[in-house]
Amino acid sequence: MQLATLEMIRDLPAPVSRLDYRDAMAHMAAAVNIVTTDGPAGRAGFTATAVCSVSDEPPTLLVCLNRSASVHPVFTAHQSLCVNTLCDDQRALSNLFGGKTEMAERFAAANWTTAVTGAPLLEGAAVSFDCRISHSTSVGTHDILYCEVLAVRQRDAADALVYFGRNYHGLPGAAC
Ligand SMILES: NC(=O)c1ccc[n+]([C@@H]2O[C@H](COP(=O)([O-])OP(=O)(O)OC[C@H]3O[C@@H](n4cnc5c(N)ncnc54)[C@H](O)[C@@H]3O)[C@@H](O)[C@H]2O)c1
Ligand SMILES: Cc1cc2c(cc1C)N(C[C@H](O)[C@H](O)[C@H](O)COP(=O)(O)O)c1[nH]c(=O)[nH]c(=O)c1N2
Questions:
Q1: 66 lines ligand 1 (CB under 6 A)
Q2: CA 152: distance to chain centroid?
Q3: Which residues face 45 on adjacent strands?
Q4: Residue 70 CA, distance from chain mean position
């Protein structure tokens, strides 16, 4: 194996720091979601922007959940969840579910129903995806939850909520 020379090491780019990475990621706009679960380990929910579509056959999305989050044990116990994508008029929910708030207080601020898994579906959400967690992997500080979508519910016309530059922005909706 060729030993790296000092010149080679010196020429390597400095690794991206956590703060530089976060500054960079603040430039990536994202949808804002309340991810919920319910079952024997109780009802839980958190705000998530690290959510995206994976495949349409079978319908699958992914959610990245920080293992240090208070809700992490509940989601891993249930292996099911619902991704509720917020509309512009639901900004306050994002902060409420964004941590440090009692779970009962979080859920008291909105109306909920259920579909297949029993995970709470948010009334008035732009769209809700009721899912079974099919498998997960751990990368760095987060678990990546791969979720098979078992049911969907969508609201026809709604203004979208976007998170960009560490702030919320409304996006005028069209009939979807
Ligand atoms: N993926 C995540 O876990 C994630 C995403 C967004 C916000 N947050 C939380 O919300 C707080 C406020 O975020 P902000 O956007 O106002 O400012 P920030 O500077 O803390 O984060 C800027 C961007 O960096 C990314 N990021 C932040 N923390 C992360 C983490 N632990 N793992 C992976 N990516 C991360 C997100 O894209 C975020 O929008 C953050 O400190 C974090 O606790 C977490
Ligand atoms: C706009 C926005 C976006 C996200 C978050 C927060 C906010 C405000 N949080 C953090 C998460 O909601 C919550 O703050 C942490 O889980 C800590 O919550 P507890 O205090 O442990 O309940 C978050 N956490 C996570 O694990 N994955 C994610 O994608 C996101 N995205």
A1: yes
A2: 16
A3: 36
A4: 15
Each residue's pLDDT tens digit, 9-23: 777 787 899 999 999
How far is it, in rounded angstroms, from Cα 28 to Cα 62?
Answer: 17
Indicate the domain borders of the chain: 30-167
CB 66 less than 6 A from any atom of ligand 2: yes
- CATH no., domain 30-167: 2.30.110.10
Centre of ligand 1 to C-alpha 22, Å, is 7
- Per-residue model confidence as pLDDT tens digits over 58-73: 999 999 999 999 999 9
Contacts of 176 (CB under 8 A, 6+ apart): 126, 154, 156, 157, 158
Q: Is 24 in the pocket of ligand 1 (CB under 6 A)?
A: no
140 three-state secondary structure: coil
39 lines ligand 2 (CB under 6 A): no
Cα–Cα distance between 12 and 172 in angstroms, integer?
45
Write the residue with the smallest CA distance to atom 22 of ligand 2: 99
Sign of the Cα pseudo-torsion (36, 99, 61, 132, in order): negative
CA of 115 to the centre of ligand 2 (A): 24
